[in-house]
Design goal:
Elements (H helix, E strand, L loop, with lengths): L1 E3 L8 E6 L2 E6 L5 H21 L7 H11 L6 H15 L9 H12 L5 H20 L24 H10 L2 H13 L3 H5 L6 E2 L4 E4 L10 E4 L2 H10 L20 H10 L9 H12 L4 H8 L4 H4 L36 E2 L4 E2 L13 E2 L4 E3 L14 E2 L2
Antiparallel strand pairs: 1-2, 2-3, 4-5, 5-6, 7-8, 9-10, 10-11
Helix pairs in contact: 2-3, 3-5, 4-5, 6-7, 6-10, 7-9, 7-11
């Protein structure tokens, strides 16, 4: 066995033969003593695997590379790479079996120490969990360790009023203003707008479509175009042969953050992000009476749960049931009568209230004129419907 470095200051490499196969591998350290220890351990693991049938321990680095190779298709791959790059600062070279709950909890604390919130910490830990789950499926881990998640606060849905939206669009540069106006008219996500091509538009039929590989829900999405959305597209005609919203003869990858924050401040909005325009679009729809099931189809959500976040903005469907508490308002100065005030005068066969207090009474139907009919009691079977009236 020999140790060598390719240049001064580089990590040491080990070079040896095992069962007729040459092993040449970086030790990942610039310390010769640690490099020798790593090489000896590697050689011993290979021997035990060959003679005793034991599998060599797979390291975090190997698992990450294998996971990345398998998941090249992910749209969020660049974000995952950033998250795994941070995790690798602390997990590099570690055997997978050494990454337990305590190690993950320490990793989460280190990420939290950078000043990010619980949600960001959870996303980083979720990336680590994905790699460990992949390793478990391949048999590299006997069991997947639990992920210690941080408690996230419920976020309030942020949406803009019509007036705030107009101020926002007016304060944006022209190329961003067109995108923002189209987003508010269609509810499309940022990437679906920035990467929108003319081949996805049919102005004659007032229709656009998002391909399954572009959609978050992984299915094709048809987007009917309102008059406002079609007007934006009409103004974009001729600006670029391919991209609907071009900038400097190419597609916009990411809207300028400085310009966006300036416009948000001018519109009188706080903590308002580009995705909040999708929330705004959905909120306007609900406030104007669009059924939640229809909104789900328009927005491309896979389940109704995501749409229910907006239900509180249009409680009109609850109005017919608001009076079912039994509370009756009076025109005079007397307080409203509730169920606790109800009495039955058995002798007079009259009620003072709106609810029959006799536990043996079954079924009450109230007429608009205040007469209760359809009352049946076990004790007074000879009572006629309509016999009870309200004072």
């Amino acid at each position: 066995m020999r140790l060598f470095r390719r240049s001064e200051g580089d990590a040491w490499w080990c070079d040896f033969w095992h069962q007729g196969r040459r092993i040449r591998k970086s030790t990942g350290t610039t310390d010769r003593r640690e490099a020798q220890e790593y090489a000896d351990r590697l050689k011993a693991e290979l021997w035990r695997h060959a003679r005793l049938g034991e599998r060599p321990a797979v390291t975090w680095d190997t698992a990450v590379l294998d996971w990345l190779e398998t998941h090249q298709h992910l749209r969020t791959l660049s974000d995952r790479k950033d998250q795994l790059r941070f995790a690798s600062k602390w997990l590099q070279g570690k055997p997978l079996t050494a990454i337990d709950r305590d190690a993950l909890d320490t990793l989460g604390k280190r990420k939290a120490a950078t000043g990010v919130g619980p949600a960001t910490v959870n996303r980083h830990l979720a990336a680590v969990s994905a790699v460990l789950g992949h390793a478990f499926k391949k048999g590299w881990l006997p069991i997947k360790p639990p992920i210690p998640k941080r408690q996230e606060r419920e976020k309030r849905i942020r949406w803009a009023t019509q007036e705030q939206a107009r101020k926002l669009i007016a304060a944006l540069p022209s190329h961003l203003a067109a995108m923002a106006e189209f987003s508010l008219a269609t509810g499309l996500r940022q990437s679906n707008v920035t990467q929108l091509e003319w081949s996805q538009i049919d102005l004659g039929r007032r229709l656009a479509w998002i391909h399954a590989d572009q959609a978050k829900g992984k299915r094709d999405l048809a987007v009917p175009l309102s008059a406002a959305a079609a007007a934006v597209l009409q103004r974009q005609l001729g600006k670029h042969p391919r991209w609907v919203f071009p900038y400097r003869d190419g597609a916009i990858r990411q809207p300028t953050q400085v310009a966006w924050l300036t416009a948000v401040k001018a519109a009188g909005l706080e903590d308002f992000h580009w995705h909040d325009m999708r929330h705004t679009w959905a909120s306007w729809h609900v406030q104007n009476g669009t059924p939640l099931a229809v909104l789900q189809e328009l927005g491309g959500w896979r389940n109704l749960k995501m749409v229910l976040r907006y239900a509180h903005l249009a409680p009109g469907h609850l109005a017919p049931y608001a009076g079912n508490s039994g509370l009756v308002a009076h025109a005079d100065d007397r307080p409203a009568i509730g169920p606790q005030d109800v009495e039955i005068n058995q002798a007079q066969n009259r009620t003072h209230g709106v609810r029959i207090a006799n536990t043996r009474t079954r079924g009450t139907r109230l007429r608009k004129n205040g007469v209760a009919d359809g009352i049946r009691t076990r004790d007074n079977r000879n009572h006629n419907p309509g016999q009870y009236i309200f004072h």
